[in-house]
Amino acid sequence: MRLYKNVDKILLVAAILIALLGVVFVFSATYERAVTPTPNLEKLFVKQCIWAVLGICILLLISRIDYSRVLDFSYLFYVINLMFLFFVLVKATERYGAKRWIGFGFFSLQPSEFIKISVILVLATFLGARKEHRGSFGNYIGSFFIVAPAFLLIFL
Fold first, then answer.
1. What's the CA gap between 63 and 17, in Å, rounded?
2. Are 71 and 125 in contact (CB under 8 A)?
3. Could you give the C-alpha distances from 78 to 59, 65, 70, 144, 155, in angstroms and in order?
4. pTM of this prediction?
């Protein structure tokens, strides 16, 4: 486990506790529905546990990446995620009266979750490059034009 000796242990414990709470909450929220019509409660619980473990593994992998390298690609991630949001408007299937998900066979993706991270990264890159203009009107306008496309594509 030498690879992860520098992992923030408090962050890791917090992530594990949040994942466990999520599994418990999903279990309790689906218990009544799963038991009454179809007895798939165990399947739902196992599926949620698998995703929680996968999320913790992804956390450990991502924690190894130098954040400055991620910022180098922030605009690319942002554009790709905007394209996914546009694709949702054009091609996604409607569920419960809303188009939010892109289906990939055995799993579905909700691009609005990824655009949140992309917007934060692009804003960090943009504002970090303009530190000397902190609080300027140009920073506010630039930030608005970074957030606005994602906001509009989500709410259309």
1. 17
2. yes
3. 20, 18, 12, 14, 17
4. 0.72
Site of tokens 């579905």 = 108
pLDDT per residue rounded down to tens, the chain (156 residues)? 555 667 778 888 998 999 999 888 888 877 665 555 555 777 777 888 898 999 888 888 888 888 888 889 999 999 999 999 998 888 777 777 777 877 777 777 888 899 999 999 999 999 999 888 888 898 999 999 999 999 999 888
Alpha helices, DSSP H, located in the chain: 9-35, 41-62, 67-72, 74-91, 111-129, 137-155
The two structure tokens encoding residue 75: 């605009």
Per-residue CA distances from 41 to 24, 32, 36 (Å) = 12, 9, 10
Instruction: Kindly list the domain boundaries of the chain, sorted by start residue.
Output: 1-64, 66-156
3-state secondary structure of 102: strand
